[in-house]
Amino acid sequence: MQVAIPHTLGRDTARERLRSRSHTLADAMPGGAAEVKTDWPTPDRMHMTITAMGQVVDGNVDIDDTQLLFSVTLPPMLSFLEPMIAGAIRQQGPKLLK
Prior knowledge:
Mean pLDDT: 91
Strand content: 35-45%
């Protein structure tokens, strides 16, 4: 699943804001009670490991000049949640850049 969050901040500002607010990702997860661990394998890619409801989900956020691209791989057991998760990313994602 991929969800794009457009922005007009430029890559450097978007990166700085995402880095400074990434600790709030767990608060934005539907249903709460999620644990989110992040690391930065490259300057423009944040990797996430999300643990919720006994499941582990991996994802990335790629930063470019005009958008954040959230890519999340859902296990088959959680695929039915894709519309809800995509909606939460669309709603909560822009808050990471404020």
